[in-house]
Amino acid sequence: MISGTNAIGNKASKQGEKTFKTFDPKNNENTEWTFYEATTNEINEAVALATDAYTVFKDYSGEKKAEFLEAIADEIEALGDELINTYCRESGLPQGRAVGERGRTMGQLRAFATLIKQGSWVEAVIEKAQPDREPLPKSDIRKMLFPLGPVVVFGASNFPLAFSTAGGDTASALAAGCPVIVKSHPMHAGTGELVSSAIIKAAKRTGMPNGVFSNLNSSGIEVGQQLIKHPKVKAVGFTGSIHGGTALYKLANERDEPIPVFAEMGSINPVVLLPSALEQEGDTWATKYASSITLGAGQFCTNPGLILGVQGEHLNEFIDTLSKEILKLEPTTMLHPNIYAKYVEGKKELSEQDGVVITAEYKKDVNVNIGQPLILKVSGSDFLANTKLHREVFGPFSIVVMCKDGAEMEDIINHLEGQLTGTILGSEEELELNAGVVDALKGRVGRILFNGVPTGVEVNSSMVHGGPYPASTDSRFTSVGTSAIRRWVRPVSYQDWPNRLLPDALKNENPLGITRLVEGVYTNTEI
Fold first, then answer.
1. Checking DSSP bridges between strand 29-36 and strand 306-310, what pairing results, if any?
2. Which of 214, 169, 252, 229 is nearest to 53 (CA)?
3. Mean pLDDT per segment of 10 residues, for the chain of length 527 residues?
4. What is the pLDDT of residue 1?
5. For position 503, what pLDDT does the model report?
6. Set 45, 75, 101, 301: catalytic member
7. Fewer beta carbons within 10 angstroms: which end of the chain, N or C?
8. Do 47 and 150 contact (CB within 8 A), yes or no?
9. Residues in contact with 247: Cβ distance below 8 Å, sequence separation at least 6, in sequence order
10. Using CA atoms, how far apart are residues 35 and 15, in angstroms rounded to an integer?
11. H and E: helices and strands count for the chain
12. CB-CB contact of 393 with 373 (8 Å)
C-alpha cells in the first residue's frame, strides 16, 4: 500500500509539509497518491544511517550480500499486480512492458548476486616479497577493489524499475558493498515506494544493517542537490538528460572533496546504411527501424535518432518505406505531459531548420500525451553546417542524412558528440572496405552493432552502456551489465601485511577459491 512517506533506513518518515502527486499520463490526471518531500533533517538522517551501515556492510562476504540481492528480487516479485498496476498508472506504459521490465530488474539483481558469490570481481593481485632481491629488496604487495562508501542513485523517468529504485545502479552499488540512498523520480514515486518496501523487507529478512538503503521523495532539484553536496556521500549514479547529468557532475566537482558522478545521458545513436543494406534489404531494414524508432514511444536512450546513407535511388526508397511503415504503427502515450511538451518543441525546432524536409508526420487525431512520430531528411552538407540537427529529440523521432559519399559520411560521424551506440548495416566485406567509417564510429560510441537495432540492452558481463561525453560522464564505465560494479570501488594495496589480517581475497590460502593474478599468472590455487 502506498503511503507517500520517505524511507529513512527501516523507518517510514513524513517530517515535512511540502507534498506532491504523481501523474497518470494516459488519463491526463493526477493520481490519488500524495508524497512528502524529504526535509533536510531526513536527508541528513538517511546519510548518517548509510555511513554507519557502511562500516559493517563493506566487509560482508559475497555470499551474504548475494543473499540480500536475491531476497530483493524475490520481494519485488511478491509485490505482484499492485506493482504492475502502479507502474502503468504512473508511466502510461503498457502492462507487457511493465512485466518485462520487472523481469529485467530481478534478473539484474540475481546476476550481481552470482557475480559476488563467485568473488573474482575484486581483481585480486599479489606480488610476493623478495627480501634477498638485489640491489633492493622487494616488498610483499597485494591489491584488490574496495567499496567507496554511501552512494546516491537518481531514478530515471523512462525506466521506473530497471533504471530506478532497485535498478542497475542500486544493484551494482549494493553488490560492491556500498549502502544506497535513492532520490526517487517524482514521475513514478508510487512505483518507487513499492520497490523500496521490497528492498527494506529483504534487508530485514537477511540481517542487513539499518541504513543500507533509504528512499527519498522530491518533486524538485533541492533534495538531489543537498545529497550530492553532503560530505558523507561518496559517489552518484544518474540516468537522464544531458542538462540534469551535467549539473550534478558540476556540483560534485565543486565540493571540497570532489566525488565521481556516473551519469548516462543523451544520445542519438547513429545508424550507418552501407550500399548492400539498401540494395538488398532496404525495405526489411526500413520496417525494422520504424518499430525501433517508435518502441516505447521513442523514450529509449538507445533510440535510433540519426540514420546515415549515401544519396541515391536506394536511399530514397528506404526513406519512402520507413516513412510509410512508421505511419502504420499506432502511436502511444508518453511518460508525462512535460516530456510530451519537450518532444513537440524539439521536433518543431528541427523540422523548421534550413534544408530539412518532413517525410513522415503522424497527423491523425490522438488522445493527450500521445507521441506522434516524425521522420525528417536533410543533406549531409546541411547537417554538418547546423549542429542543432545533432541534438537528441526524446521521442519517436529520427532524421535521415543523405550523404554525397562515404567521405562525407565519415566526416559527419567525426563531428558527432559522444554516443551510447552506433550501428552499421551491410555485409562483412563492406566492413573491411569502409574501415574509416567503422573506426570513426568506434571512436564516438560505447557499443557498436552490426546488422541489428540499438533498442535493447542485454544485461551481461560484456555489455557497455556508456560512451564519450555527453553519452556519459566517464566513458570507461558502463551502467548496464555486471561490469557496472566497478564504478563503486577503488583499488587498495596492502604492503607487507600479516597474512592472517589480510582480506580473504588476498590471503595466501585463498579461502574464497577465487581467480587471482599472482606474479603475473592467473590462478585460483593457494600460494
1. unpaired
2. 214
3. 96 97 98 98 98 98 98 98 98 98 98 98 98 96 98 98 98 98 98 98 98 98 98 98 96 98 97 97 98 97 98 98 98 98 98 98 96 98 98 98 97 98 97 95 98 95 97 98 98 98 98 98 97
4. 86
5. 97
6. 301
7. N
8. yes
9. 221
10. 11
11. 15, 21
12. no
Q: Say how many C-beta atoms besides its own lie within 10 A of residue 523's C-beta.
A: 13
Q: How far apart are CA 123 and CA 144, in angstroms?
A: 6
Active-site residue 301, yes or no? yes
Q: Which among 67, 70, 75, 264 is annotated as catalytic?
A: 264
Q: How many CB atoms lie within 10 A of CB 3?
A: 15
In three-state secondary structure terms, 166 is coil
Q: Is 445 exposed, middle or buried (0-12, 13-18, 19+ CB in 10 A)?
A: buried
Among 443, 453, 416, 410, which residue's Cα sits nearest to residue 268?
Answer: 416
Residue 182 identity:
V
- Residue 62 makes CB contacts below 8 A (sequence gap 6+) with 116, 117, 118, 119, 512
What is the Cα–Cα distance from 350 to 340, expressed in whole angstroms?
16
Q: What pLDDT, on a 0 to 100 scale, did the predictor assign at position 373?
A: 98
As to burial, measured by CB atoms within 10 angstroms (0-12 exposed, 13-18 middle, 19+ buried), residue 431 is middle
SS3 for 225? Answer: helix
- Give the pLDDT of residue 330: 96
Asked if 405 and 383 count as a contact pair (C-beta separation under 8 A), the reply is: no
**Cell 490522438 sits on residue:** 366
Residues 509 and 515: their CA atoms lie apart, in Å, by 12
- Answer yes or no: 101 catalytic: no
* Chain position carrying cell 542524412: 401
H or E stretch including 313? helix 313-328
